[in-house]
Amino acid sequence: MTPSPQTSTRRATGTRATRVLGIVTLVMLGWLGLFGLVLSPADVDQGDAVRIMYVHVPTVWLAYLAFIVTAVCSALYLFGKRHSLGFDRVAGASAEIGVVFMALTLISGSLWGRITWGVYWQWDARLTTTALLFVTYIGYLAVRGLDGTRERRARRSAVIGLLAVVEIPLVHWSVRLWRSLHQEATILDTDLDVDIDGLMLFSLFVGVVAFTLLFVWLLLHRSRTIALDDLLADRGIDRAIAERRAEVGPSGGSS
Amino acid sequence: MSPGRIRLARRLAAKDLLIERRSRVLVNQVLPFSGLVMVVFAFALGTGGVLERAAPGLVWLAVLFSSLSTVQRSFGLETADGAMESLRVAGVDPIALFLGKAAALAIELLVLVTVLLGLAVVLYGTEPRAEGIVLLVTTAISATLGLAALGTIYGGLAAGGSGRETLLPLLVLPVAAPVLIGATRGVEAALGTDRTAVSEGWPWVGLLLVFAVAIGVGGALAFGTLIED
Amino acid sequence: MSDPATNPTPADRSAPAVDLRGVIALLGGFPALSGIDLRVERGEIVLVAGPNGAGKSTLLNVCAGLVPVARGHAEVLGTDLRGDRGALRHRIGLLGHRNGLYADLTVAENLAFWADMVGANEAEIAAALTSAGLDGRLSSVRVSALSAGQRRRTALAVLLVRRAELWLLDEPHAGLDPSGRDELDDLIRLAVASGVTVILASHDLERSRALAGREIAVKGGTVSEAA
To answer: Does some domain include residue A27?
Structure first.
């Protein structure tokens, strides 16, 4: 496809700001590697397994942050005066990122669990809620993929995104109640609350900052990609309309 | 809520129940399926103590699975000949539509729950006790209300187009966790499974009622948007 | 909002039943309507003709508010389709390839259900049954046991009970035998005599031309020929 004069203006999702952000994110991730793997000490109880925390905690933070952004943008889309599709794009992009990082959280968490507890999975309230949350947002993304015009899809997705806000606290509450009944002698005593020394805390802090920057960077690019997709579809429509009108043929026209 | 809305909802629910009385799809298909699920659980878990201890949970698991078919039937009769589209074109109040569908669904599910609890007595050797009857009935009703509201929300969405049926379990099951947990514990307390006291069941009824109200209100507000295509 | 007793204002009465100017409608990104102009006055019967895929069904669905207007100006019964359609909805009846009936209910029960939905009374149900030729024994037959023509007439009787002012009929003759088609046409004429406006899309051109006062040809999502 040869680009028309208008499309020849370069369309990319990057700007100078995102490039700077990207570089800063990379530097922070490099720092995280340095602090997490080299500078910070091994834990007295957990040994080197504690280093998984420097990824695990930031990913779970990022996933929750992403789902909060989805909920807020759903509300802004639905209740905003202009029903700006921009909010819908950010909501969708954020949920995609959230699901990916929630998956990473579950994987890194179960690896850590295997090393520390000896099992991949514990039926503890936090883990169970996280798993259900993960599936809920997979459902949200499935709803986003349904057909319909852009506005209808956006409205439907926003409603599903806000319903999740009602549902998730209920799920969390019920799972907590459920677990509180079964307080078996737990091997969960070695939870995240390890004896954290200053350097460990700092490494964790570096991780959270690095992943937050990564989230912003991903969110900007992903929502701009979606916007470009929409733009492309809109351009295609003008051509499609012209082609469709041409079906009438020269004899018809505007009689 | 306007009396007109309640009247519409009652009329819609009555219509669904009349259709079920005529067609007997739920009685002839869904009910046998749920009974079969109860039997299959025994194959998986073996008879004896395990089955009796797990009975309350198994009953609600069977209810949950059967409720998916019930929801599909409820919206299937709206989409079979395009009735849902007519209701939408005619601008029938979506909140009334939600309340009506949910009410009919709740009544149908309540019948299902009653039959399955009876079946648990026969198949799993569960023994109801007199002091737990009030708790048992309250638990069953409040759990059913929540499940009906939940099923109506996503049933309406899944009925909106072809190829969406498979979406229903994905959307309903993760959110149904409070119903499954609360109803199971409530029934356990009512029956005295594992020597639980009746009083231990009431907090779970609270959970179930909060769930039913929250999902009911959320669903009523969301329904119009979800069925609009 | 959905109060069926709301009477249209006089200004609204004088507005054309349908007024479309340069309307573009998209189905999954495809321009099913590529810029259509159509003006239909009250009490008209307009035939929309054209080959399969010309955009006939989409045109009716746009008028019914089921498919949104992407671009252009669209007014139905004096109400802008791109604005709040709430008050407009109960005044429009769309009969597509499906009848919108409950197969396990009788003819009378289907009508009674709709009467309750829109606040119509017993007399209106009885009148609709008579107009559609469904009174007497037929009214207590379940829809699943009716012939295709009887079902179609039941669906139109629902529009009568709903007091729909604009009937959008998509291939109403499809699947009916000649006598069934005659009875359907009689019912449509009866409705128009009482003030209803009808837009119908049909392949049965000979029959539809006898029924319609005017014909437009649609192709490629736009009007190719107007008569």
So the answer is: yes
Amino acid present at A202: F
Q: What is the DSSP letter of C142?
A: B
Task: Give the distance between the most distant pair of CA atoms in chain A.
Answer: 87
What ipTM was assigned to the predicted interfaces of this complex? 0.91
Q: Does residue B207 sit at the A interface (CB-CB below 8 Å)?
A: yes
Q: Which of A82-96, A210-224, A238-252, B186-200 has the lowest mean pLDDT?
A: A238-252
Q: Are C60 and C198 in contact (CB under 8 A)?
A: no
Domain assignment present for residue A105? The answer is yes
CA B199/CA B137 separation, integer angstroms? 14
Structure tokens at B217: 């209100």
d(CA C127, CA B218): 41
Tokens encoding B116: 């399955």
Range 153-212 of C in CB contact (< 8 A) with B: 158, 162
* Residue C5 near residue C162 (C-beta atoms within 8 A): no
Residue of C nearest to A247 (CA): C220
Domain that holds residue A174: 16-179+203-234
pLDDT tens-place string over residues A51-78: 888 899 999 999 999 999 999 999 999 9
Per the CB < 8 A criterion, the answer to whether B191 and B56 are in contact is yes
Single-letter amino acid, residue A111: L
**Cβ distance of C116 and B19 shorter than 8 Å:** no
Reduced to 3 states (helix: H, G, I; strand: E, B; else coil), residue B160 is coil
Does the residue A3 lie in any domain? no
The CA distance from C40 to C36, in Å, is 13
Distance from first CA to last CA of chain A, Å, rounded? 34
Q: Is the pLDDT of residue C188 over 90?
A: yes
| 8-state DSSP, C144 | G
| Pairs of residues, one from chain B and one from chain C, whose beta carbons lie less than 8 Å apart | 71
3-state secondary structure chain A: CCCCCCCCCCCCCCCHHHHHHHHHHHHHHHHHHHHHHHHCCCECCCEHHHHHHHHHHHHHHHHHHHHHHHHHHHHHHHHCCCCCHHHHHHHHHHHHHHHHHHHHHHHHHHHHHHHHCCCCCCCCHHHHHHHHHHHHHHHHHHHHCCCCCHHHHHHHHHHHHHHHHHHHHHHHHHHHHHHHHCCCCCCCCCCCCCCCCHHHHHHHHHHHHHHHHHHHHHHHHHHHHHHHHHHHHHHHHHHHHHHHHHCCCCCCCCC
C55 to chain B, closest Cα gap in Å:
18
Using a CB-CB distance cutoff of 8 angstroms, which residues of chain B are in contact with residue C117?
Answer: 8, 11, 87, 90, 92
Chain B positions in Cβ-Cβ contact with residue A79 (cut-off 8 Å):
none
This prediction has a pTM of 0.90
- Number of domains, chain A: 1
Name subunits touching A (3+ CB pairs < 8 A): B, C
Distance in angstroms (rounded) separating the CA atoms of residues C24 and A153? 19
Of the listed ranges A194-198, A228-232, B103-107, C204-208, the one predicted with least confidence: A194-198
Taking 90 as the threshold, does the pLDDT of residue A162 lie above it?
Answer: yes
With the C-alpha atoms ordered A161, A162, A163, A166, is the resulting torsion angle positive or negative?
Answer: positive
Rounded CA gap, A41 and A29, in Å? 18
Q: Cβ neighbours of residue A1 under 8 Å, at least 6 residues apart?
A: none
Q: Which residue has the higher pLDDT, C183 or A149?
A: C183
User: Tokens for B69?
Assistant: 């078919």
Structural domains of chain C ordered from first start: 14-97+160-226 (3.40.50.300)
Terminal CA-CA length for chain C: 38
Please judge whether C104 and B91 are an interchain contact, meaning their C-beta atoms are less than 8 angstroms apart. Answer: no
Mutation pick from C104, C140, C169 vs chain B, by most beta carbons of B within 10 Å, is: C104
